[in-house]
Amino acid sequence: MSEKNKEAAKAPDPANEKLAGLEADNAALVQENKELKAELKDAQEIVKDLKTQVQASKGGKTNTIKIGKDMYKVVGGFRKKEKAFTAEDIASNEKLVKELLEKGSGLIVKIK
């Protein structure tokens, strides 16, 4: 091999260097995309919860309630000792919802 060819073989190929750089950039962007998708999902859940809270605070009763990380929908009401409980009444009373969940009531349905 001539001296010129040996030097050319030793010299890094600019195309390969550029390709390696682009592959590294791509890997970083893929990771960032995954992280942003997870963040978006969390943000969407927060917005949904806030909308429910706003609706409830405006006097528009809702029949959903969040307990811990789980969201529940109250699908019906009941009567107990001359008192009627509507789905909205039940959903606004976290203690009552927890009691009904412990008893396995069919009035409370897990949404998520």
Write up what this structure looks like.
With 112 residues, the protein is α+β, with helices and mostly antiparallel strands. It has 2 domains: 12-60; 61-112, no CATH class. The protein is built from 4 helices and 5 strands. The strands form 2 sheets. The protein has a 3-stranded antiparallel beta sheet. Strand 3 (78-80) and strand 4 form a beta hairpin. It starts with a helix and ends with a strand.
Structural class: alpha+beta
Mean pLDDT: 81
Distinct helical segment count: 4
Please provide the ordered H/E string of secondary-structure elements. HHEEEEHHE
Structural shape: rod-shaped
Strand content: 15-25%
Q: Characterize the biggest β-sheet.
A: 3 strands, antiparallel
Rg over alpha carbons: 29 Å
How much helix, percentage-wise, in residues?
55-70%
β-strand number: 5
Which stretches are poorly predicted, pLDDT < 50 over at least 5 residues? none
* Cα-to-Cα separation, first versus last residue: 70 Å
The spatial strand order of the largest sheet comes to: 1-2-5
How many domains, as an integer?
Answer: 2
What would a concise description of this structure say?
It contains four helices and five strands. By secondary structure, it is α+β, with helices and mostly antiparallel strands. The chain folds into two domains: 12-60; 61-112, no CATH class.
List keywords for this structure.
two-stranded antiparallel ribbon, alpha+beta, 112 residues, 16% strand, 5 strands, three-stranded antiparallel sheet, 4 helices, single chain
